[in-house]
Amino acid sequence: MQVKRLFGNTTATWIIISIIVVGIIGINLSIALNTVNQLSSVQNSLDKTSNIIVRLESLHLSVVVAESGQRGYLLTEYEEYLNPYHAELQNLDEKIALVKDIDSEVAGQTERIAEMLVLVDAKINELTSTVDLALEEREKTALRQIMTNRGRDLYREIRKSMQHLIDNEYRHRQELYAQLKQIQRDAKVNFGVSAITSGLLVIGMFLMARINLTISNRYQDDLEEQNELLQEKVTLRTQELTVYSEELSRSNRELEDFAFVASHDLQEPLRKIQAFSDRLTTIYKDKLDERGVDYIKRMTSAAFRMSTLINDLLEFSRITTRGKDFVEVELDSVLNEVLGDLEIAISESGAQIDIEPLPKVCADPSQMYQLFLNVLSNGLKFRKADVPPKITITVEDKTLHDELQHIDVPSCIITIKDNGIGFEQTYADKIFSPFQRLHGRTAYKGTGIGLAVCRRIVERHGGTISALSAPNEGAQFTVSLPIDAVVNKYMGE
C-alpha cells in the first residue's frame, strides 16, 4: 500500500529518481576522478624517477669521459685527448647542480646522493691536479700520482655508489609500473561496475517511468470520469439556475407591473382626497370651525405624505429593474446639475460647498444624479440651528480587491462630509435601510428612504457606501465606485 501510494505521487517519485541518479552519477564521478588522480600521480612519479636516472647516468658518463681524456693525454701526451676532458669539466658543474636538486621518493637516496657527490668532487680534484702537473711538464710526478691508484679507487667508489643509486631508482620504477597496472585493473573493474550500475539505472528509470505512466493514465481516466460527472452536475445545475433565473425575471416583471399598477391605483384615491380637501377648504371654509379646518389640513398632509411615500417606493423598486445602461459619466457635470437644482436650498441656508475635481466613471448618469442629490440634500436638511451648512467633497483614486470576482478593481473613493447635527455611530448601518428615521416627521421632513436608494444605487454599480458620525459633529459619507467600465457593465447587467 505504501509503495502504491509512493508511486502514485508522481512528484515524490521523480524526486526519488533524481536523488538516486545524482547519487550514482556522483559516486561514478568520484571513482573516475580518484582513478585519474592516481594515474596522474603514478605517471608523475615515473617521469620523476626516469629523470633522476638520466641525471645520474649523465653525471657518471661525464666522469668517465673526463677520466678517459686525462689518461689518454698522460699516456700519449697528445693534446687531442684534452678536448673531451675540458668539455666534460665545463658540463660537470651543471650536471652536479642537477643531481643536487634531485628529490627522490626512495628513502635514503638524498643522503646517498650527497655521499656520491663528495666522491665526484674528490675525483675531479684528482683529475685536474694530474693534468695540471702534466701541463707543467711534470709528467713523471703526474704518473706517480696516478700509479698510487687513488683515482682508480675513487672511480670504483663512484661507480659503486652510482650503480646503487640507479638500481634503487629502477626498483622504484618497477614498483610504480606494478602500481600502475594495478590501478589500470582497478579502473577497468570500476568502469565496468559504473557501466552496470548505469545500465541498471536506465532500466530502473524506464520501469519507474512506465509505472508512473500507467498510474498517470489511470488517474487521467479517473479524472475524465470525474469531469464527466462534474459536467453532468454543472449542466443540471445550469438548467436549474436557468429555470430559477427565468422565474426570477418573471417575478421581477410581475413585481414591477404590480408596483406600477399599485402606485397608479393608490395615487388615484389620494388625488381625489386631495382634490375634495381643496374643495372643502375653498367652498366650505366659512362654514367650518377651526377644528374642521385642522382636520382637513391633517387629511391633506397625510394624503401628500402617502403620495410621496408611494413615489419613493416606486423609485426604490425601479433602481435595478429600470436602470439605464452604463456609459462614461463626468461626475463633475452631474454634480453641477445637482447643485443647480439645489440652488434655492443652498441660498436659503447660506451653505458653503467645497468640491474637488471628480473623475470620469462608467455608470448610469440618472442614478449618479440621484445619489449626489440625496446625500447633499441630507447635508442641507440635517443642519445645526443658526449654523450655515458646510459640505466638503473630496476624491481619492485607489485599487480595491473584489472578493466576489477575486480581482483588483481601480476605484474612486468619494467622501462627502458635512458639519450638521450628526448621529450616533450605532445607527450608521440602520440609516441605509428603508423607512428608517432617526428624527420625527415634525422636526425633519422625508420618508426615510433616500439613503436606502443611495445604497442600492451604489451596490448596483459594484461599489459601497458607508457613514461615519457622532452627535453634533457632522456626518461623513464615503462612496467607492469602480472606474473600470468592464466591472461596471458586469455589475449593471
Automatic annotation (TrEMBL):
Entry superkingdom: Bacteria
Annotated catalysed reactions: ATP + protein L-histidine = ADP + protein N-phospho-L-histidine
Name assigned to this protein: histidine kinase
EC number: 2.7.13.3
Keyword Phosphoprotein: yes
InterPro entries given in the database record: CHASE3 (IPR007891), HATPase_C_sf (IPR036890), HATPase_dom (IPR003594), His_kinase_dom (IPR005467), HisK_dim/P_dom (IPR003661), HisK_dim/P_sf (IPR036097), Sensor_kinase/Photoreceptor (IPR052162), Sig_transdc_His_kin-like_C (IPR004358)
Record's keyword terms, sorted: Kinase, Membrane, Phosphoprotein, Transferase, Transmembrane, Transmembrane helix
SUPFAM superfamilies, per database record: ATPase domain of HSP90 chaperone/DNA topoisomerase II/histidine kinase, Homodimeric domain of signal transducing histidine kinase
Transmembrane segments: 12-33, 189-209
Pfam families (alphabetical): CHASE3, HATPase_c, HisKA
Gene3D superfamilies: 1.10.287.130, Histidine kinase-like ATPase, C-terminal domain (3.30.565.10)
Broad enzyme group: transferase
Residue ranges annotated for the Histidine kinase domain, each copy included: 261-485
